[in-house]
Design brief:
The protein is α/β, with parallel strands linked by helices. The chain has a six-stranded mixed beta sheet, with helices on both faces. The chain has a four-stranded antiparallel beta sheet with strand order 2-1-4-5.
Length: about 250
Amino acid sequence: MIKIENLVKKYQSILAVDGLNLEIPKGQLFGFLGPNGAGKTTTIKLLMGLLKPSGGSISIGGVNIHDDPVRAKAMVGYIPDRPYIYNKLTGMEYLEFIADLYSMEKQLVRSRAMKFLEFFDLKDFAHELIEGYSHGMKQKLIISGALIHAPKVVIVDEPMVGLDPRGARQVKDLFRDLCKEGTTVFMSTHSLGIAETMCHRVGIILKGRMIAIGSVEDLRQKAEQDHGDLEEIFLKLTGDNDMQSLVDSLKTTG
């Protein structure tokens, strides 16, 4: 459903994405991990057509996103980590506005909007201005807007930001159900626990290159570990396990 081939993005002398190759099939929940500055955000912007690649190609559902961006983007729901939202609209008006961008029928929009609002416990706030919503309520509304047109692919950056435990559980269950129905979810997150429990496969990017990809067990073997959670595997593969050396050196000099 998502196919990335030899993707490159340069910013003058900086190589943010370096020959990235990735294929994610229909119905898979893929976790995209990496330390700060590894190239995650750049990759997501390239996937969404917000940046033009320096080389390589991206296809969504067999459609090249740069050759036919409107058709490709119509298949995608995007949940950014720092979304912009229109505070002077009501929750229902916001969902109707987003649905109108996809030329959805009015009757279908109202039906789907109410289902999402009920699911996320926002029904009683449907006709209240968004400016009165809490951060978590806004996040739920943004997720609803990204999914209202029933996209074949969902691209999400840090989906649990601002959500309480109930809200986070609702989103987890929703993503799992979407994948069971055939939706592909590409999820970038710093929450390794969420990635470990939710994702079918995980990819780790470092300095613009995919250094490991597979199930948690696959990554464990690559890291040459008999046990340990995804956090330990991640730290070993990315070389971020220097903290213990620092602590040991402080003990020695202290």
